[in-house]
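Data deposition worksheet. Section B asks for the primary sequence of the deposited chain exactly as it was used as input, without tags or linkers unless they were present during the calculation. Section C holds the resulting structure in token form. Section D is free text for depositor observations; keep each observation to a single sentence. Incomplete worksheets are returned to the depositor.
Section A, Depositor: J.P.
Section B:
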Amino acid sequence: MEGSVPAGSKRFDVHLARTEFVVAPGESLSIPVLVYNEGVEDLEIALSVRGVPSHWLSVPSPTIHLAPREQRETVLTVQPPAFPQGHAGRHTLVVRVADQNLPAEAVEKTCTLTVAALQVPGRIGVLLAATEFSVVPGSSVSIPLVLLNQGLDADTFALSVEGIPSAWAYAPSAAVSLAPGRQQEVTLTMQPPASAQTRAGRHPFRIVVRSQGAPGQTAEVPCVLTIAATTLFSAELRPQSVEAGQPSRVVVENQGNVQQAFRVSWQSPDDQVVFEPGQDQQVRVAPGEVGMVQFVPKARSRPLLGRGVSLPFTTRVQAPSGETRNVSGEVKARPLLPAWVLPALGIAILALIAVLVLTAVLGGGDAGPAPTEAPATEAPPAGATEVAPTEVPPEQPTEPPPEPTQPPDQPTEPPESPTEPPEQPTEPPPEAPTAEETPGEGGEGPELPCLPAALAPFLVALVFTKGRKR
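Section C:
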């Protein structure tokens, strides 16, 4: 910095080390300002700055006391806000010093202040407040940049993006026309979609500005877009209702943009359902992929008789971030003895009882009346008169009856000798037909007692078969 006092008639003056300064948003810049008194009297000098917001600026003291021929240096600090509150741009900074007693007497110095994290020199000037940006899939981030026409002629600049899908980027206008020395801020919006294809991490890309007035003139700005990790997933049971002891599966679809390790667990009210495996399971699923965990639910206890029961349970899927999905299912537990067992058993017992009853009832008719034996001839008592039979039996006995041991008493009257033998009966006396002699079709009767006994096993087998099909 110059330390001598320039010649002239002015009583005081101000001096800056440079005329151009560059500062990045969020950082601070120190600009030395040298003020000196050329007169022979003490001066109270007031320092002020314009061209940028006042909250960007700070000085040790707004007033400076100078003795005759004295010079003093003060420091002007410039600190623009950080991105995204602070934008890139080029500003004209005016430093003014004045006598407090004579405010009209003042000296001004001008410099250029460029606020940018990156500055591209050349015909196409580009200023960016930042080169690294972060965004959550499904949301957007704005990238303000300043285009400067640093050529001698008017020109039109076209913007494009390379390194990332062009569908992610959007600008209100694809081309900007600028006169020489002019600048304009353009906002480029980045909006990656919320999908598994939008992978989390750092994605380098380039903002390319091309001149239409001077083909071949381009400016490239390297940047980085950091896409945040998102947790998005779905879970379902296949099948949702399962028989006890049959396998089921938990299907987890990772709809986020980063690989996730999901924890799968099961629970049921009052621990009515037992799960195999009994411990929590973990499944790693890549973005956009599907993972499965197989398990077997079993009922802790089953009813002895009656209908089956449905036992509810819950499958819980938890992501590393703590987000969970609960999926409801049910286990169908059948009774130990099927419902058809008791009716089938009752029918079998009734069939057996019927067979026994029919056998007992119809079995006595098959035996027929017990054969009668001819009573043994007893000797008539003494003095009894033997009465001769009045009828001749149908069949004469082949052997004569045994003679009595004692001769019977002589009857008082001799029996009348039959003049004719008795007529043979034309038809035998009717007898009660037995089951075997019951007439049927064809003149012969079926053996009824054997029919229920033969059909009973078939009836029981038929009932059991229908029960099993149910």
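Section D:
The CA atoms of residues 18 and 40 lie 29 Å apart.
The helical segments are 341-367, 450-469.
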